[in-house]
């Protein structure tokens, strides 16, 4: 019973972290320029947060997987989504023009985005590993 409770707690914490990252990313993208943040910080800060979000969503769905495996999975998912920007159909391009489409899929392929995703995933994995090392439940 304690193992189930610990696993549920781990999932909820990871999901809450992902939701918090989403809120930070949306706030950065929608309000970053208005408060005078530079383009580089808004653009690639958002991409870094997006990579971290992908990591925490993967970690929420697969709580028993090792952190390294989750990081690799998150990077593959993020890179595949970035590469999907090279694929064009009318309905997909229409979706990309919406705010939801721009935030979820983006509009233009960029190798720099892949680097930013990797940085966000690496930071998220590092923070998660540190948290688990200090947690009384360990990896749960």
Automatic annotation (TrEMBL):
Q: Does the keyword Transmembrane helix apply?
A: yes
Q: Which InterPro entries match?
A: DUF2809
Ranges that cross the membrane: 12-32, 44-63, 70-88, 108-127
**Sorted alphabetically, which keywords does the UniProt record give?**
Membrane, Transmembrane, Transmembrane helix
This protein is called DUF2809 domain-containing protein
